[in-house]
Design goal:
single chain; alpha/beta; six-stranded parallel beta sheet; about 15% strand; globular; disordered C terminus; aconitate hydratase activity; 2-methylisocitrate dehydratase activity; EC 4.2.1.99; Aconitase_4Fe-4S_dom; iron-sulfur
Length: about 950
């Protein structure tokens, strides 16, 4: 059977079984067959083949795009004749292919000696921005050889006509509201984790957004209000919490955005989303990628009494009053010039934060990629012509306060700034381009990152990137048909692109499913680094790390840069003594609770950097704090360590990078060896005193300062989704932190120790607890299942060498076997200990899950509805989060323990300890302490 007939069969199956359109074509072999049929005027499939060629072929650097560009070139040169595709139309199709083979063809034509094709090709090129070094080198060489078309191209690029000639955004945008949910809306609602396997198939994945009923309601609103855009709203909450989830924005755009190109199916852009409390920071970045709009509605406000004091309910939470209604079906108008939201003539709220000069540029250009590449192209053209580039784009916002010191994040941004004009250090609020040092891609968004790289015609990693890793942890639990279809293809692409990959496409080293955040934490060898990772929990305890969507990861990999504002910081320090029966996870949860209490329920962490003065806690243990900051709704976090601790953390990172090298994971460029060299340089700088550990200036300015009282933490603390709260907007917020005594005797159906929130010490705690319980009771019987997933293979190897793995295996009813990985997800659990493969496991909810309706106590990070455990019609699933010792004991008892039981179980066990620094960890301010580094 021909490839085309196989494709037709697939089309019929998609239509009959799933109600879907034909899958977009990315295969060169299939498109070559389609072109053969187009050439044959008598072919029975000719008309369909024409439609597939014109409207259903993926652009960029897909192999199909190369075949399409070549055929269009032949039509333009008159070597082939297709009545339906004139040379003019061929140029139009090339203009929508966005880079890679299409740029090569356009340059071939534009730089040729044939003015009939050279001039129209140049006209198309003047609209393009996705040019790379090889493309620019061709233009530069032609210009120096006296080619007038090349000169005209450079002059157009230098003026940034690819941007200036685009239409401005509409002054008035009508929207019709759709309440997608009450309270915080996680990206799981827009793109469920258990559907991660389908994210690269955009139409198929779009079917999982919210519910089929919601999709019908959105379509009905569109039909009723054809001149308005549907705006999805998080009523009484924040939109897009938990992760960046490009697939979530893609889904919203698919249902409520606009098609980016008539010749590329299911690539939609420019959605409008909103929330009472705005958009979660990393999700908002993803909205920018598509040129969308994210509004902070402020449509519910705190009620105040006659004296101006906030009115609270019986739980001490602020009572909210509706400032204005955004009920589903309300037609509103966004005035993009006045930057206001209106209902008719009535002004509702200022939305200027959604229309900064930079965001307006993204909207005009159809997304942030085009702006990033456009700036780079303009700079190249101006330098080649020997002229100064005119100010076309909004200048970088550069804010500098004389006499004011720098926070830790301000120092990092200043060190990595690109193209900054200011001669004085920059403070928060500045908006700059920065060099990205470390980039991570994970395996459920990875296929989308590949698509993004293809779409922007990138073929190799930027030399500016120090280290980059593609993980396999999100699909580690079950090696099923979906994983087998997606993961090897992903690893092969990323390995060829220049990343270190968890799986070797050649099969020469053992597949590693280590949790991506742990690997990134290890390959980050500089506390002054900037890290971008395709997951919200990209929160390193060295440097500053930002969770990002697949597109932002792609742009960082391709260019080695990212553009973002310097965020404000909140300083977190500690006082008192940590009690011996407490675990550091309890300190982490108490930080959230004490912060909310100190600030009257306001989450001062939201959208800001948490600068935690951790002192002597090694990077592995400190990661527990930084990881949780994603659930605190912080933009990122920074650990302030002393010199000695930082050196130990870097030495530990070096040892783990060396293990990766020993396994054969380094690439031809020697990326891992290069990281060890950089680590040695960083250690030398600390030891010499020339470059001490990162610390803020003593007069740095913070948005707020939080002081955590360790003396006040006497019980294990639990983060509770509060699933039965009568106010639906207060469920699943991560803000409900309670002591274990609140749950006295509450049944537990399953325990889970794993995900990125645990380290080697947690595995040792399990082993010590099992020995304790065995000594006390003579034997151990689990009254509830306990699932344990170590974060990395290194940890497993070390536990085996030190003997702790033996006690775990002794009481395990299931032990992972890489030679025979699970082929199906577990749906039922016995009351045993499951030793699972390293990876994310239950925390992801895309493969393994607890049984519906279960009450789960876990060390993971996710409280989203349906993530770890689905609901039943009778009972809502609960995923309560706590420390490792609490999870283990609750699984043994089948219920939450009393404090007496807990104290007995942890007696003599060395839990994850923490002591506050004994002295302030800041640097004496000296004017111009951190000079601007223009990379």
């Amino acid at each position: 059977m021909s490839l085309y007939l196989e494709y037709i069969k697939e089309i019929e199956n998609r239509k009959n079984e799933l109600g879907l359109a034909p899958k977009p074509i990315d295969s060169a072999d299939l498109l070559s067959e389609i072109i053969t049929q187009i050439k044959d005027k008598e072919n029975q499939y000719r008309q369909d083949s024409l439609n597939f060629f014109i409207y259903n072929t993926l652009p960029g650097t897909t192999s199909a795009a190369g075949v399409k560009a070549k055929f269009l070139k032949e039509i333009i040169l008159g070597q082939e004749s297709v009545a339906e595709i004139t040379p003019e139309f061929a140029f139009e199709l090339l203009s929508h292919m966005k880079g890679g083979p299409s740029i090569e063809v356009l340059l071939d034509l534009a730089l040729s000696d044939n003015p009939t094709v050279a001039n129209p090709a140049a006209d198309v090129l003047k609209t393009q921005v996705f040019l790379y070094d090889a493309d620019m080198a061709r233009i530069e060489a032609a210009f120096k050889a006296g080619n007038l078309v090349a000169k005209a191209l450079l002059e157009s690029f230098a003026q940034a006509e690819f941007f200036t000639k685009l239409p401005d955004i509409e002054e008035k945008i009508d929207v019709v509201t759709y309440i997608a949910g009450e309270g915080d809306i996680s990206t799981d609602l827009l793109s469920p984790g258990h559907q991660a396997h389908s994210r690269a198939d955009r139409e198929l994945h779009g079917k999982c957004m919210i519910t089929p009923e919601a999709q019908e309601e959105i379509q009905a609103l569109q039909a009723k209000h054809p001149n308005a855009k549907v705006m999805l709203i998080a009523e009484k909450g924040t939109m897009g919490v938990g992760s960046s989830r490009m697939s979530g924005v893609n889904n919203v755009a698919l249902w409520a955005g606009k098609q980016a190109s008539p010749y590329v199916p299911f690539i939609n852009i420019a959605p409008v989303v909103a929330g009472t409390n705005g958009i979660a920071p990393i999700f908002l970045t993803t909205v920018d990628v598509t040129g969308g709009i994210g509004l902070d509605l402020k449509n519910w406000v705190k009620k105040v009494d006659a004296n101006g004091n906030t009115v609270t309910d019986e739980n001490g939470d602020p009572v909210l009053e509706e400032a204005y209604s955004v009920a589903t079906g309300t037609v509103l108008t966004i005035d993009t010039k006045a930057k206001k939201l209106y209902n008719g003539d009535k002004e509702l709220v200022d939305v200027s934060s959604a229309f900064t000069p930079q965001k307006v540029e993204f909207m005009k250009a159809g997304g942030s990629y085009a702006v990033t590449f456009g700036k780079k192209l303009q700079t190249f053209a101006a330098e080649t012509l020997g002229i100064e580039a005119p100010q076309v784009y909004a200048p970088s916002k550069e804010i500098s306060h004389e006499g004011q010191g720098l926070t830790a994040v301000e120092k990092i941004f200043n060190r990595n700034a690109v193209g900054v004009a200011s001669e004085t250090p920059l403070h928060s609020g500045s908006n700059v381009r920065v060099k990205v040092n470390i980039v991570g891609s994970q395996d459920t968004t990875g296929p989308m990152t590949c698509q993004e790289l293809e779409a922007m015609a990138a073929s190799t990693i930027s030399p500016l990137v120090d280290g980059a890793y593609q993980s396999g942890c999100h699909t580690a639990s079950v090696w099923d048909s979906k994983a087998q279809a997606n993961i090897p293809k992903l690893m092969s692409f990323m390995n060829a692109f220049g990343l270190i990959t968890a799986r070797d496409p050649k099969g020469e080293y053992h597949a590693m499913t280590d949790v991506i955040h742990k690997v990134l934490n290890d390959i980050t060898i500089d506390d002054r680094a900037i890290i971008i990772g395709g997951d919200s929990h990209t929160r390193m305890s060295k440097g500053v790390a930002f969770g990002a969507d697949s597109g932002t990861v792609a742009i960082a990999l391709a260019t080695g840069e990212s553009a973002m504002p310097i965020p404000e910081s909140v300083k977190v320090t500690f006082k008192g003594d940590m009690k011996g029966h407490m675990d550091f996870r309890d300190v982490v949860h108490a930080t959230q609770a004490q912060m909310l209490k100190q600030f009257g329920g306001e989450n001062v962490f939201q959208g800001r950097i948490i600068e935690v003065h951790i002192g002597t806690l090694l990077a592995d243990q400190a990661f527990t704090f930084t990881d949780w900051t994603a659930e605190m709704k912080a933009k990122a976090s920074i650990c302030i360590s002393n010199d000695e601790t930082l050196i130990k953390s870097i030495e530990l990172a070096k040892s783990r990078i060396q293990i990766m090298i020993n396994k054969g994971m380094d690439n031809e460029a020697g990326m891992l060896k290069g990281l060890i060299k950089l680590a040695d340089e960083r250690i030398a700088g600390i030891q010499s005193g020339e470059q001490p550990a990162l610390s803020p200036d003593d007069n740095a300015k913070y948005y707020a300062e939080v002081l955590v009282d360790l003396d006040a933490i006497d019980e294990p603390m639990i983060a509770d989704p509060d699933v039965n709260n009568e106010d639906v907007s207060k469920r699943y917020t991560h803000d409900v932190i309670r002591p274990v005594s609140f749950y006295n005797g509450k049944p537990v159906d399953l325990g889970f120790v794993g995900s990125c929130m645990v380290h080697k010490g947690d595995m040792q705690i399990i082993a010590q607890m099992l020995r304790n319980i065995e000594k006390q009771n003579g034997a151990i019987e689990f009254k509830a299942p306990l699932v344990v997933a170590p974060p990395t293979y290194n940890i497993v190897d070390e536990l085996k060498a030190e003997g702790d793995w033996d006690i775990l295996e002794k009481y395990a009813g299931f032990v992972f076997d890489d030679a025979k990985p699970k082929g199906e997800a577990r749906t039922k659990y016995e009351n045993i200990l499951y030793l699972e493969r390293p990876g994310c496991n239950l925390c992801m909810g895309n493969q393994e899950k607890a049984e519906p309706g279960d009450t789960v106590i876990a060390t993971s990070t996710r409280l989203f509805q349906g993530r770890v455990v689905a609901d039943t019609t009778e009972k809502k699933g609960e995923s309560l989060l706590g420390s490792t010792p609490l999870v283990v004991l609750s699984s043994v008892l089948g219920r939450f323990p009393t404090m007496d039981e807990y104290l007995a179980a942890v007696e003599g066990i060395n839990l994850t300890r923490f002591a506050p620094p004994t002295q302030a960890m800041s640097t004496k301010y000296v004017a111009q302490a951190v000079p601007i580094k223009v990379v």
